[in-house]
Write a structure and sequence with these properties.
Layout (H helix, E strand, L loop, with lengths): L4 E3 L3 H7 L4 E2 L1 H5 L5 E4 L4 E7 L6 E8 L9 H10 L2 E3 L10 H6 L1 E6 L1 E5 L11 E6 L5 E12 L2 E12 L10 E3 L7 H5 L5 H7 L9 E5 L28
Parallel strand pairs: 2-5, 5-11, 6-11
Antiparallel strand pairs: 1-3, 1-8, 4-5, 7-10, 8-9, 9-13, 10-11, 11-12
């Protein structure tokens, strides 16, 4: 499960690190502010492939995939809140996700993400944990996107793909986002990549090898709170851990 993440970076940094050569009109006109508490339905950056050229485009969409059969704004919002994540095990077959998985794959850049501890490990239940890269500025979440036509025009939305957590992260929570290493980005974004190869791209060995994590204050629980202090490590006393 990934229900909250952070992206504290300038647009130019994303363009440079992800090798982006094009911006959509909306990404040209606007820059999203640094955000340490990105919640579902917020606007986020996504990276798409340019058909036939292999180049990459930066765009902006809202987080949570709107079901294409939604008939009203209220239905769209409800479906969006229920589809912020797509499971790697079923993304290719679930009606909400399967068409996007075949034809609209993307990357979602992040500085890190939050998870709330379950009873699986050393942290007290619901303790917020921040997970970030050991090296580099960004994580690259595998994602899919879609368009939904409303009275105000086409609305673009995104879901982040998740997988089973591994090793120490599995002691925090049993799910984690699917991170794609840089040598898989081009094939993931290329819509000519065959479905069997796309499925294989999602089998990432040692997906946690570039990750570190630490407990943070509960201020992140409220979407009203924002700022770099949300990812400041905190010390948990002996009474606040299970072991």
């Amino acid at each position: 499960m990934c229900g909250r993440y952070a992206l504290a970076a300038l647009k130019e940094e994303i363009i440079g690190d992800f090798g982006i050569s094009h911006l959509t009109p909306v990404a040209q006109e606007r820059s999203l502010p640094s955000d340490w508490n990105i919640a579902p339905t917020k606007e986020i950056y996504l990276i798409k492939g340019v058909p036939a050229t292999g180049e990459r485009t930066l765009d902006i969409a809202s987080w949570g995939l709107i079901a294409p059969w939604s008939k009203s704004e209220s239905e769209a919002l409800r479906s969006q809140s229920m589809a912020i994540n797509a499971r790697v095990e079923t993304v290719h077959e679930k009606p909400t996700f399967r068409d996007s998985f075949k034809t609209r794959r993307c990357l979602v850049p992040a500085s890190g993400y939050y998870e709330w501890a379950t009873e699986l490990g050393e942290y007290p239940r619901k303790q917020p944990i921040f997970i970030s890269p050991k090296e580099g500025r960004f994580l690259a979440f595998a994602g899919i996107y879609n368009f939904w036509r409303s009275t105000a025009g086409d609305r673009q939305s995104v879901a982040i793909i998740t997988r089973d957590a591994v090793h120490d992260l599995a002691k925090v929570h049993n799910r984690m986002p699917l991170f794609l290493p840089a040598d898989r980005w081009s094939r993931w974004l290329d819509l000519d990549t065959s479905l069997p190869e796309v499925m294989d791209l999602m089998r990432v060995p040692e997906p946690d090898e570039n990750l570190r994590f630490w407990p943070v204050a509960s201020k992140v629980n409220s979407i009203r709170n924002n700022g770099p202090e949300l990812i400041t490590p905190i010390h948990l006393g002996e009474s606040e851990t299970l072991f």
